[in-house]
Amino acid sequence: MARACPACRFDPGFEAIVCPRCGAQIRAGVLPPQADAAAPNPSAPTVAAPARRSASGPGRTILASDATMIDKRTSGRGCFIALSGPDSGRQFMLEDSTSIGRSPQATVSLQDPRISERHAQVKWTGSQFVYQDLQATNGSFLLTGGRRRRLSGPHALKDDDEIEIGETVLRFFAIEGGGRR
User: Fold this and answer.
1) Which of 17, 36, 115, 161 could form a disulfide linkage to 172, CB 3.0–4.6 angstroms apart?
2) Which of 87, 59, 67 is nearest to 26 (CA)?
3) What angle do CA 73, 37, 101 make, to 5 degrees?
4) For residue 77, what pLDDT is reported?
């Protein structure tokens, strides 16, 4: 059962240990930041490990029940959490320049076969993240208000934006001013 953050009242929509918006503890039993968030949890669904794993970097495997274990020491300003598709439950911290695609060299490397090798780019402009589809065959779509709109140009990411690429839906979370409301 999901609970709202006691500090900022944000409801992530799923069971969270740490608030994805402010980093406050929502539920007891938080693993220390250096602990591997992919440690076995018998009650959580299994998520396949990515080719590259880091305790605090992009592409870290997160179990669905621990999808908000954000390491505040990364100084990240935003992240994507995969809500659907083969990478469902994984969290991806965004860098100043983040590539998204099926390529193992992509910063956000996804397993969805409907995603292009080089599908999209997200760049930090100094005040916000901007998402840009790289003319991928299957495109990128913004899901908002029950509607699906194809992104044909740059899109300034806002907190809780959902981007659909292939069968994967990525929800954007701003951390410490990383996206305007």
Assistant:
1) 161
2) 67
3) 85
4) 81
Tokens 């621990």 locate to 66
Q: Reading across the β-sheet that carries 108-109, which strands appear in turn?
A: 108-109, 97-101, 120-124, 129-133, 155-156
Backbone angles phi, psi at 65, to 5 degrees: -75, -15
Tens digit of each residue's pLDDT (9 = 90 or more) over 164-179: 999 999 999 988 655 5
How far does the chain reach from its first CA to its final CA, in angstroms? 26
Residue 172 CA to residue 143 CA, distance in Å, equals 12
153: DSSP letter: S
pTM over 0.85: no
pLDDT tens, residue by residue, 52-84: 233 333 444 333 334 444 443 344 688 999 999
Within 10 angstroms of residue 137's Cβ, the number of other Cβ atoms is 9
Q: Is 25 exposed, middle or buried (0-12, 13-18, 19+ CB in 10 A)?
A: middle
| pLDDT beyond 90 at 133 | yes
Q: Cα separation of 92 and 58, whole Å?
A: 5
Task: Give the 3-state secondary structure percentages of the chain, helix then strand then coil, rounded to 5.
Answer: 5, 30, 70
Read off the pLDDT band of 11 (50, 70, 90). Answer: confident
